[in-house]
Specification:
CATH class: Alpha Beta
CATH architecture: 3-Layer(aba) Sandwich
Largest sheet: 5 strands, parallel
Distance between the termini: 18 Å
CATH topology: Rossmann fold
Structural class: alpha/beta
Oligomer: single chain
Strand order of the largest sheet: 2-1-3-4-5
Helix content: 40-55%
């Protein structure tokens, strides 16, 4: 699956990139620090999966979500790193990677439905 990352924090983009590189069926096409560049890119390129961190504080972010094609799976990246600070470093990595794999599994299932044209046009989201 072709995927992109949209996050304004370079460190978080790098962490997601590392996980993508460890995942056999994912191809990171590009990553972006802003919605404008991502929108232009997505207009020209078919993307199957988007990893995105939104604050939903700005109307342009809500408008951006509305422009995502319905056959593109979206994984919203929460600030998971701060949520699990109390765990040991190795536990945090394992926890995050397990959540990541679960999200990828959902994206793969969704792509099967899209390819078979049996998907439901509902708004389903999975947050990691």
């Amino acid at each position: 699956m072709n995927c992109i990352i949209i996050d304004d924090q370079p460190l978080k983009r790098d962490k997601i990139k590392i996980l993508i590189e460890k995942t056999q069926d994912l191809v990171l096409v590009d990553s972006f620090s802003n919605l404008t560049d991502a929108s232009i890119f997505m207009f020209k390129t078919k993307i199957d999966l988007i990893f995105i961190n939104l604050q939903i504080a700005d109307i342009k972010e809500i408008e951006f979500i509305k422009t995502i094609p319905e056959d593109t799976f979206v994984i919203f990246i929460s600030d998971i790193f701060s949520l699990v600070k109390r765990k040991q470093k190795s536990e945090r990595k394992n926890y995050f990677f397990e959540r990541f794999k679960k999200g990828i599994g959902n994206a793969q299932n969704y792509q099967m439905f899209v390819q078979n044209k049996t998907f439901n046009k509902t708004d389903d989201y999975f947050v990691i």
